TrEMBL record:
Keyword Iron-sulfur among UniProt keywords: yes
GO molecular function: 4 iron, 4 sulfur cluster binding; catalytic activity; metal ion binding
Cofactor list: [4Fe-4S] cluster
Keywords, ordered alphabetically: Iron, Iron-sulfur, Metal-binding, S-adenosyl-L-methionine
Keyword ATP-binding: no
Protein name (record): Radical SAM core domain-containing protein
Pfam families: Radical_SAM
Radical SAM core domain sequence ranges: 1-221
Length: 268
């Protein structure tokens, strides 16, 4: 099951990310550094939440999986203190902490979100993700093999030089992965990102005039498919994805839909 929204709380244990994906504004906001709280400090906050009766925690870190030793100490502390939280986090698929999935599962990590972004190496390279399709498959497989309840995949569509066939391939790739949930979002240009600067250099955006705007790349970049085509491909892709899931994993799919419905009722 996904994290319960009943007695749910978030914690930020670190800030920033050292990677340089072209669309992400986190390195700019955090000066390209990764700053983190000590395991003892994190566990102290968790103890307070435990004493207050919280049952679910989501770590809102930009990249929780960056340091294996810190993760190990946090998980060991959760087990030692006998916290009963279900908790979740997110991170890259090529993280050094993949070998920590067993202890994460043992300490009740029940939701793990990966920045997959695309199902073709061409698009991954264009976005400067510095990860491979094999790394994506391995991370998701390892998470599920070691008992992480829900593996989620973040995807981007409407990227520069991406074709309609590339978008559909991302959906087919998602269907073959052992992901439990997934989200396909339109790529946007954020001020301060390498992608924004590329658009300034190409004369697509005026840095001083357009600083307050949030652009969907498909609305401004001639190398990106038009919005109408991107949305059409997304609709086709979801049909492909859900058809595959219902055929190959019907019981899990219906259980997941039931869980979402139950949690939506809890949040109202």
């Amino acid at each position: 099951a996904v994290l319960s929204l009943d007695r749910f709380c978030t914690i930020q244990t670190s800030r920033g990310c050292p990677y340089k994906c072209v669309y992400c504004d986190v390195p700019m906001l955090a000066d390209g550094k990764w700053r983190y709280r000590s395991p003892e400090h994190v566990l102290g906050e968790m103890q307070q939440l435990n004493d207050q009766g919280y049952s679910s925690i989501y770590f809102t870190d930009d990249h929780f999986l960056l340091n294996r030793k810190r993760i190990n100490k946090i998980c060991e502390g959760i087990i030692k203190r006998k916290f009963e939280f279900r908790w979740g986090c997110e991170g890259r698929v090529d993280s050094a902490a993949v070998d920590q999935f067993p202890i994460m599962a043992e300490s009740n990590c029940n939701f793990l979100a990966f920045g997959v972004e695309a199902g073709t190496q061409k698009v991954l390279d264009r976005l400067k993700k510095n990860q491979s399709l094999d790394q994506i498959k391995n991370a998701v497989n390892e998470a599920k093999r070691h008992g992480i309840g829900t593996a989620h995949g973040f995807f981007l569509i409407g990227s520069p030089d991406e074709t309609e066939a590339d978008i559909l391939q991302s959906f087919r790739f998602a269907a073959r992965l052992k992901l439990d949930t997934f989200g396909f979002n339109r790529l946007c240009a954020y001020r301060g990102t390498p992608l924004w600067q590329e658009y300034v250099d190409r004369g697509i955006i005026e840095d001083e005039r357009d600083w307050y705007k949030l652009f969907k790349c498909s609305d401004i970049d001639p190398t990106v498919l038009p919005s109408k085509v991107v949305n059409r491909a997304r609709q086709k892709g979801y049909l492909i994805l859900f058809a595959h899931r219902i055929i190959m994993r019907p019981i899990q799919t219906f259980k997941l839909l039931r869980t979402f419905s139950r949690n939506m009722n809890t949040s109202t």
